Amino acid sequence: MTSRPRQSAWGLWNISFGFFGIQIGFALQNANVSRIFQTLSPEDPDILNKLPALWVAAPLTGLLVQPIIGHLSDRTWLGALGRRRPYFLTGALFATLALFAMPLAPALLFAAFMLWVLDASLNISMEPFRAFVGDMLPKEQHATGYAVQTAFIGAGAVVGSIFPKVLEWAGVANTAPPGTIPDTVRYAFWFGGAALFLAVLWTVVTTREYSPAEMAAFDESDGADQHETIRLLAERTLTSSFAWIAGGIAVVLLVLRFALQQEMYLLGGLLIAYGIASIIAIQLARAGRGASMLGHIVGDFSGMPDLMKRLALVQFFSWSALFIMWINTTPIVAQNVFGTTDSSSAAFQQAANWVDVLFATYNGVAAIAALTLLPWLARAIGKVRTHAVGLICGAAGYASFFFIRSPDLLLVSEIGIGIAWASILAMPYAILASSLPQKKLGIYMGLFNVFVVVPQLLVSTLMGSIMKAWFPGQPIWTMAFAAAVMLLAALATLRVPDAGR
Fold first, then answer.
1. What pLDDT is attached to residue 500?
2. Residue 285 in 3-state DSSP?
3. Nearest in space to 492 (alpha carbons), one of 263, 309, 300, 293
4. How would you classify residue 225: left for phi > 0, otherwise alpha for psi between -120 and 50, otherwise beta?
């Protein structure tokens, strides 16, 4: 074969079914981790302000793991197990163990550590799945492949989000003594762990990856040159490296001067660390020893295509809004809709389960929109404008939380958020997929996902300081930030060239 064959509907199913299980894990994490943290800290009056810091492990692990896994998976071949599938399987195994352990957490710090293990493991599985679509499908099927993947993401998230509520309806105890995680959450996490592993195993067993020789035949016109990356890196000056370091030092000084949240030291440290890493990579490249993982990651990051850079800004704003929502929806709904801030009360646990329903709703909407509304809009107005429309729908959904005090009416808000979620998961990847060199698909997808996790890291380090300084005890205002940055994402989308419909 000299070109990738088209995949049947069954082939598309098998390629992306593992993402169904991965998203069950992410949904359980997103909808319930803040609840677990609050439940394990019933006597801590400052727990709301601590939530972003406790969540910081999630984006930090994604930031570190995704480029590394992308780089490694581009260069892996384990015979019958293939290129990407070893990472699917390894990540799924450790994510399953974390899902089984987290609801048994005896204390807050153990739960925070399990969040780190869970998120790292989910990222190990998830990152290669993005490249897997590009590996397995011809370019004319990329949009369809990512739409199917998005539908599985939405379906998995519905299952993961709704399961605690289903257990409550079935009579499983939804309350527990102070400091104890309810049975509904524990059983949901255990179910999710089993479902995640089995779904990923399905993809591993039912797919066969193309060998390195077949990939070379498919992509013989691919212009990606690994040596060119190192050559261009060697020609770079150190100016930008020192700028990264200066930015990190500035963040540290701001924390010291204005007594900001201590977690912001992490942000400053990461900026300094990247500046130092880029200096090392440039010097190694100049010395002819740059063909390392560090050299390739730094070189590919600095040499991203212009289209990818523009989409990266869109991702930055989009995921800032999403992370604000994931962290704060439970305390918002508990306080503003169910009228409680007591994490050990029955009303709080009811609010938390209703958040599961809300999250299931937006994910269900996303699954449907990915296969119906978005393809129709993309044909009518193009992928870029479709993405802008989707993001505006999300901003409207966030803003509506200010005015709605009925649990049932919040379901309407989730429709707009669901359309935005579907677009965020499908459109940027459909726009990118056909323009990226196949030989670097893993590393570029990993680097693109850096702009998914960096905004989460910023929210984790900055939002607690902002809320504590200006809106103490009023988490509803985080939705104002979410709506505003989602609108910024829509505006940034208009700077992206539309390559076609």
1. 53
2. helix
3. 309
4. beta
**3-state secondary structure string, 202-260?**
HHHHHCCCCCHHHHHHHCCCCCCCHHHHHHHHHCCCCHHHHHHHHHHHHHHHHHHHHCC
pLDDT for the residue 225? 58
Average pLDDT over residues 128-134: 85
The helix-helix angle for 85-101 and 183-206 (nearest 10°) equals 170
Q: For residues 269-284, give the mean pLDDT.
A: 90
Q: What is the pLDDT of residues 424-478, one digit of tens each?
A: 988 888 788 767 777 777 888 888 878 887 787 778 667 776 777 787 778 889 9
**pTM (two decimals):** 0.78
Greatest distance between any 2 Cα atoms in the chain: 67
What is the torsional sign of CA 118, 313, 156, 196?
Answer: negative
**If we measure between CA atoms, which residue out of 355, 341, 310 comes closest to residue 43?**
341
Nearest to 226 by CA among 64, 79, 4, 75: 75
**Under a CB-based contact definition with an 8 Å cutoff, are residues 223 and 49 in contact?**
no
